[in-house]
Structure formats: C-alpha cells, structure tokens
C-alpha cells in the first residue's frame, strides 16, 4: 500500500487514523472490530466502503477522526520507535542528494525502525530495489514483518548482518549507499565495493556527533571518494494569526484595538470578532506570522560524497 494508492477503504486495509496533527495512530480495518479513543467508539464496519480522507463521527457524537491512506510521510509520524528515526526534513534532503528515483538500487545500514526504508521504497518503486541491513536481530525481524504487511517485500530485502565485520556481501551493484551506524567510517570500504563502478556512486552517512563526521570524512577521502560535503537540516515551523490593521484616523482618535491571536478553529470567529475597535467598526485585517516557541533542534549531520566511475582502457 505504501507505494500504491487506492480510493476506497477495504476490509484488511492499514489505515492512519487522524485526530490532530499530534494525535495519529494506525489500525487494520477488520469487520466486526471497534476502534476507541477519547472521542468515543468507531465501528470498523462503518469505515469499509468510505473514501480515504473521509471524516467519520464517533457513536457518542463527541468527536470525529479522518481515515487517511498510509504513506511514508505519515508512517514516519506513527511508526513504532525501536530506534531513533529520521524525520521528513532529513529524509527529503538525503533522497535529493543521493539522486533517488524509480529504478535505483540502494543499500541501507542500519534499518532501525524502518522509517527511511519506507521512503526509499516509495521513491525507487516500481522497478528499483532496497537492500537494508540491521545488526540487531529482533529489530530486523520486526522490520521484515512490517515490510511484508505493507506489501514492500518484493522491493525490499532485509538481512540481519553486521556489515562492519562482514561487509554487505554485494559488489558493483548499488547506485547509492546510506549508512546510519555508530562507526560509519568502518563501513566505507564495504560501501565502495558495493557501489557500481560504471557510473557515479553516491554515499550518505548519518551521524549525530561532529567527531563521527571527522573520522568518516578521513575514511571517505582515503578510499577515493570526492566532493565530500556535510550538511545539517534545521526545520522551523511558523504559526499565524489575523490581526486588525487600524488606519491613521483610528490611531488619532485614541480608540483601542484588541489584538487577539487565533488559537483554534473553534475560537477563530470569536477572536476575529474581538479584534475590533470599541464601537465595533470593522477594520481591515492582515496575517501575521512568527516562529513557534519550541523548535526541533539538531538531529544529525549528513555527510555526502561521490565515487567516480572507473575508466576503461
């Protein structure tokens, strides 16, 4: 389902249940089952046959949820965290710099919670393939089960393997390699062997500490990689509110204007009504924006490099 789309919810589908941007979960639609949350109960039988994106009300009438089609972007927000995961700013940036597109062959280590694996699979579908490696056996088994359930097994091969000790077991195969390891410098040689030699090979190393970047950069240079660059993605969210725009006459008259921010959809009309002069004269409004008070900080450093193709005599 994650690399294909359909319009209608069917029995057995994995659905993302959306309540708020901070409250999402997944469930498998099963005839006769009931989904419960703080708004009340929702019968699965009522969901079958609805279009994805539909709004369904609880039987108590206290609230509603939306039924969303699963995508890699949504999965990143609801995935069970077995390890630290990559988020959308890093995922999109890495996908761009590794030049991922349909038909590409990609090697990933380690799999972790599988957040990035789902995005890679969607990007390289339908003719590409992802080989992903995980050192921890239980995490590898859990990810394998998810790939099977999400209909990705035909384009994702997962293996429980210590790539630092044993390499990837593949040579001259991949268009790109992604390393999310504690010591990525120890896997650079294996990555070089796995990359194709008839075209430009690309590598990305995901490292939270600058000391890891330094050692990885030395290893990349030692093994013949070029155009070594490091980036850090810092995303910033903004919030907005409508505010009145008093003219010069209102200012001179000394009339007070209330600047009340719009904090929720339910309060929007009240707040807009409140943003008026004392005698209720209507004023033009303008949209104001500002960064949110809490901003997601450093995640990791992204180190990229390319491996030039070998020249043939």
The Cα radius of gyration reads 25 Å
Question: First CA to last CA: what distance?
Answer: 46 Å
Task: Give the overall shape, derived from the CA principal axes.
Answer: globular
The biggest beta sheet reads: 7 strands, mixed
Indicate the structural class: alpha/beta
Cross-sheet strand order for the largest sheet = 9-8-7-10-11-15-12
Outline the structure in words:
- With 313 residues, the protein is an alpha/beta fold.
- 27% of the residues lie in helices and 27% in strands.
- It contains 10 helices and 15 strands.
- The strands form 4 sheets. It has a 7-stranded mixed beta sheet with strand order 9-8-7-10-11-15-12, with helices on both faces. A 4-stranded antiparallel beta sheet has the order 2-1-6-5, covered by helices on one side. It has a two-stranded antiparallel ribbon with strand order 3-4.
- Helix 2 packs antiparallel against helix 4 (115-124).
- The longest helix is centred in the middle third of the chain and has 13 residues, at 137-149.
- It is globular.
- The two termini are 46 Å apart.
- Mean pLDDT is 89; it is low at 261-266 and 269-280.
Summarize the structure.
The protein contains 10 helices and 15 strands.
């Amino acid at each position: 389902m994650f690399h294909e789309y359909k319009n209608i919810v069917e029995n057995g589908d994995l659905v993302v249940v959306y309540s708020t941007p901070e409250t999402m979960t997944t469930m498998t639609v099963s005839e006769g089952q009931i989904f419960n949350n703080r708004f009340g109960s929702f019968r699965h039988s009522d969901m079958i046959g609805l279009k994805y994106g539909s709004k369904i009300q609880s039987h108590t009438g206290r609230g509603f949820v939306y039924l969303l089609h699963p995508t890699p972007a949504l999965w990143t927000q609801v995935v069970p965290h077995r390890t630290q995961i990559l988020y959308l700013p890093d995922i999109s940036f890495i996908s761009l710099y590794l030049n991922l597109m349909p038909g590409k062959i990609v090697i990933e280590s380690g799999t972790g919670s599988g957040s990035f694996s789902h995005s890679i699979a969607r990007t390289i579908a339908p003719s590409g393939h992802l080989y992903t490696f995980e050192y921890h056996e239980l995490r590898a088994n859990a990810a394998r089960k998810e790939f099977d359930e999400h209909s990705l097994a035909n384009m994702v091969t997962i293996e429980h393997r210590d790539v630092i000790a044993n390499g990837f077991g593949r040579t001259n195969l991949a268009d790109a390699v992604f390393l999310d390891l504690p010591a990525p410098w120890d896997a650079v040689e294996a990555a070089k062997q796995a990359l194709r030699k008839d075209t430009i090979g690309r590598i990305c190393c995901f490292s939270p500490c600058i000391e890891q970047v330094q050692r990885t950069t030395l290893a990349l240079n030692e093994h013949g990689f070029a155009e070594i660059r490091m980036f850090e993605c810092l995303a910033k969210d903004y919030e907005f509110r409508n505010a009145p725009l008093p003219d010069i006459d209102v200012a001179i008259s000394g009339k007070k204007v209330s600047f009340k921010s719009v904090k929720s959809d339910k309060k929007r009309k009240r707040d807009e009504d409140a943003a008026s002069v004392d005698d209720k004269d209507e004023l033009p409004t303008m949209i104001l924006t500002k960064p949110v008070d809490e901003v997601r900080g450093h995640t990791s450093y992204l180190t990229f490099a390319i491996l030039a193709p070998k020249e043939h005599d």
